[in-house]
TrEMBL record:
Keywords for the protein's UniProt record, in alphabetical order: Signal
Gene3D superfamilies the record matches: 2.60.40.3680
The keyword Signal appears for this protein: yes
Protein name, as recorded: DUF4424 family protein
InterPro entries cross-referenced by the UniProt entry: DUF4424 (IPR025538)
Species this protein is from: Acinetobacter genomosp. 15BJ
Signal peptide: 1-20
Length: 314
């Protein structure tokens, strides 16, 4: 029995903040997703989120009497090759990314894809094969992540000099001096067998991509982060209404794609000692230490994602 499952850990790009030039965007990070398979259920998910580490422990059960072998895909977000709109720690994320299955490290295969999109209203064009035909190496295609070459003109010139018909057709939509906005996506993959009537433990961890800005405007961000009265009072008491902040997003809703609801779900969010934290959560939030908050659910079907803000206080 073979299908393809999609393990979405940093799946979609959240709109970047445009408060100031030194603002950085943040991308949604998510858990393992699945393309609706009636045979594999998520028995438990233990999720830990901080600015330095995201770690998830899953326990899956194959409900059938046959082994289920899948190709697992773990896509990271698209990152623009435009360094003034920087995403923090892109290189660190790749270096820190780990997958552990039943106690053994898995070395996934890396696939690098490139895209060109003229603007937000234009279609997103997959240019992976075109880039390769134009002589782009994997190192070149990884540049938005690894930042090996900060010479933007190098890539533009390489594209404009390429005689491949498809790239010339794409470039015909740009003026002579226009920048060519291209992006790069990393997708990891590996084969995974869920043994018949057995449990499989999968863990992944990485350093998240964290954005933020030099100044907070609570009214503008209230809807994203559910800043309640207590949080706002904390900001006021610390005179931190316009303090620097960090933010990250985690995609929970992919966890609804398994055979059953998540039987046991636990979420722990950690902040630094000199920070206030706010996020949206439908249920009880328990403070288990000076810096950690814990939430649990039984038979959990996630219906919304997490946006978390960390505000520095004096």
């Amino acid at each position: 029995m073979k299908k393809i499952i999609l393990a979405v850990s940093i799946l979609m790009q959240i709109p970047t903040y445009s408060l100031a030039n030194d603002s950085t965007g943040y991308v949604g990070t998510g858990g393992v997703s699945y393309l609706k398979n009636a045979h594999v259920a998520m028995q438990s998910e233990n999720l830990f989120i901080s600015k330095k580490l995201i770690k998830v422990d899953y326990l899956y059960k194959n409900l059938s009497s046959k082994d289920v072998t899948e190709t697992v895909l773990f896509p990271l977000p698209r990152i623009d090759n435009f360094f003034e709109a920087d995403f923090a720690h892109t290189e660190a994320l790749l270096k820190s990314f780990k997958i552990i299955v039943d106690g053994k490290n898995i070395q996934p295969e890396m696939h690098v894809r490139t895209f060109i999109q003229r603007n937000e209203k234009s279609p997103l064009i997959d240019t992976t094969d075109v880039f390769k035909q134009c002589g782009f190496s994997q190192t070149d295609m990884l540049n938005p992540w690894m930042r090996n070459n900060d010479d933007y003109s190098y890539f533009v010139d390489k594209l404009k000099q390429c005689k491949q018909p498809q790239i010339q057709k794409i470039l015909a939509n740009f003026k002579k001096d226009d920048e060519i906005p291209w992006s790069s996506q990393v997708i990891y993959s590996w084969k995974q067998t869920f043994k018949a009537n057995a449990l499989t433990k999968i863990q992944h961890q990485y350093q998240p991509l964290v954005g933020g800005s030099v100044a907070l405007y609570p009214d503008e961000y209230n809807q994203n982060f559910c800043m309640d009265t207590q949080f706002k009072q904390g900001l006021k008491k610390a005179r931190a209404e316009n303090s620097p902040f960090n933010a990250l997003s985690y995609i929970l809703t992919t966890g609804a794609n398994w055979a059953k609801p998540i039987e046991n779900f636990k979420l722990t969010i950690e902040r630094d000692k000199n920070e206030l934290v706010s996020f949206c959560w439908n249920g009880k939030v328990e403070k288990i230490s000076p810096t950690q908050f814990e939430m649990t659910k039984r038979n959990f079907v996630p219906k919304q994602d997490l946006d978390i803000i960390f505000v520095r206080v004096k």
